[in-house]
Write a structure and sequence with these properties.
single chain; 166 residues; Four Helix Bundle (Hemerythrin (Met), subunit A); 7 helices
């Protein structure tokens, strides 16, 4: 399997991991702040935001151009905040639908990029890994850890409450 095919497969696998990490969360849990000023909802919004920003960049790479003008995305924190601000008030189910749609568009754009751009040092490789599989794995791990810690806290509270009654 070539580099491009491997990366596309990894993106789909890592995206599935991300979706599993959020599976079963209530709207309230999705909105609960635990990562700085973000909850799961904001994490997913910012992933979609990067998909939407980088999908046309992949098209430019396919056309032999630079993905975007130098310096455009140097301030990641400002872009992350902008992506989240743009989706203020959007319902959680719409956030999930946008995440799925943006992933599909992002991977679809990557499929149209010639294979050589996904080889080590190729123009699409780092952009794709950073916005796709690497990004998904990073946040899926954070979400799983948050859920594990929340579960442990709930278990400890239940145990403490049971001990207090005895």
């Amino acid at each position: 399997m070539g580099d491009k095919a491997t990366l596309l497969r990894e993106a789909d696998e890592a995206f599935t991991e991300l979706r599993r990490a959020v599976e079963g969360l209530t709207d309230e849990e999705m909105r609960r702040v635990w990562l700085g000023s973000w909850g799961v909802r904001e994490i997913l919004i910012h992933i979609s935001g990067w998909h939407e920003a980088m999908t046309p960049a992949l098209g430019r790479i396919a056309g032999g151009e630079a993905p975007y003008p130098a310096g455009t995305y140097d301030d990641f924190d400002a872009w992350n905040a902008r992506f989240v601000l743009q989706k203020t008030g959007v319902k959680t189910d719409e956030v999930l639908a946008a995440l799925d749609a943006s992933h599909t568009a992002f991977v679809g754009a990557a499929r149209s990029v010639p294979d050589q751009h996904f080889e080590p040092g190729g123009g699409a490789r780092e952009l794709f890994e950073g916005t796709g599989p690497g990004h998904y794995r990073e946040h899926a791990a954070q979400i799983r850890e948050w859920r594990r810690a929340a579960h442990d806290r709930l278990g400890a509270a239940t145990t403490d409450a049971g001990t207090a009654r005895n």
